[in-house]
Amino acid sequence: MTSHAAGEHRSVVIVGGGQAGLSVSAHLSKRGVDHVVFEKHRIGHAWRTQRWDAFCLVTPNWQCRLPDFPYQGDEPRGFMSRDEIVAYVEAFARHVGAPVREGVAVERIAPHARRGFEVATSEGVVTADAVVLAVSGYHKPKIPALAQTLDPAIVQIHSSEYSNPDQPPPGAVLVVGSGQSGCQIAEDLHLAGRKVHLAVGSAPRCPRVYRGRDAVEWLDELGQYDLPVERHPKKEGVRRQANHYLTGRDGGRDIDLRRFALEGMRLHGRLVGGEGGRIAFGPDLARNLDAADAVYNGICDLIDRHIAETGVSAPGGDRYAPVWRPAEGEGGGAIDLAQVGIASVVWATGFSADWSFVDLPFLDPEGYPAHRRGVTSVDGLYVVGLPWLHTWGSGRFVGVGADAAHLAEAIGDRLARNAPQPLAAAI
């Protein structure tokens, strides 16, 4: 790979060579728009390096609908493993002939006096009429400040660095966070026979199968993945909502934390503090479990109404009934890590965004890109691949293609409006 030619200019620069950036590239190519994709690492980097060994999708393979490249394997109702996801994204890049420059980091994006934007990379400077930020919002592992105060003997691992149950040292493992990653990592450890403590937050849960079909099939049929942000009851607030936890492991199943508790996993409330060899949890374990189950049963209600209204034939279905309940006060208070045998902590506490490389006023007061379906408040700057960019499907394989098509159209229209007019037309 060679450095950029001095004075290189592109109509569009796409930052990020994941499924979002590649989808925009595919649609720009259809329109004949000149562009380049800069990928700091390799295509599929996050899938390849920030997922554990047993990771798989929680949505069925048939929902993988990248532009003109749907899943074509023989298990449409299966769930692709980590390596299969990487292969799918790499194959998509080859299929669309995306002009990707791997190993090129974008270090700064700033206005250019005459040519739109100046994009400084690890291999030189390029100017562009438009820039698409396709780098999601998961840039830096988010770890609570109290992590720095824990006993140095406690091994600490962020979920993006977790590999398998053999990675943590001997002893019990505390997993902090009950979103998709936290619950699946806790299950991974639990199934391997490790003693697990789980700090349970407010993430909701979803049934895997209900009334004869995967719940994702029902929700897709109901149009839930196409529901735009402005029509959601929570409006913009839904973008801060945790995803429902369930798993595609071993063909797919519910994740039932109460059943794990019956089997020996120790559940705690939300993490509220800690120092040295002690960690404290809030008194909200029962409330958090009940809230997750309420969402689970609410999804069942939604499916029931759909079946009743459409008259579709489906077997009956039962509501979830708790198989275990914490005793009064259980899950709260402080524990001594050494006393209960905890030797390591897995922080499944998510990520924070870092847009500091973009020297443009495109963020809202909370530091989130101000945009309308990916079109930001800065003319010529776009974002794609964010959760709930436009719909529930936006941050997933099922919906990113539609967002990419919308942006490609917006970019094409803008380039056409700003194109120099022929001399004859100007007279």
TrEMBL record:
Molecular function terms, GO-annotated: flavin adenine dinucleotide binding; monooxygenase activity
Keywords: Oxidoreductase
Annotated Pfam families: Pyr_redox_3
UniProt KW Oxidoreductase keyword: yes
InterPro entries to which the protein is assigned, alphabetical: Auxin_biosynth/cation_transpt, CHP04046_FMN-dependent, FAD/NAD-bd_sf
Source domain of life: Bacteria
Keyword Methyltransferase in annotation: no
NCBIfam families reported for this sequence: MSMEG_0569_nitr (TIGR04046)
Stored PANTHER family: FLAVIN-BINDING MONOOXYGENASE-LIKE PROTEIN (AFU_ORTHOLOGUE AFUA_4G09220) (PTHR43539), FLAVIN-CONTAINING MONOOXYGENASE (PTHR43539:SF78)
Descriptive protein name: Putative flavoprotein involved in K+ transport
Protein source organism: Hansschlegelia beijingensis
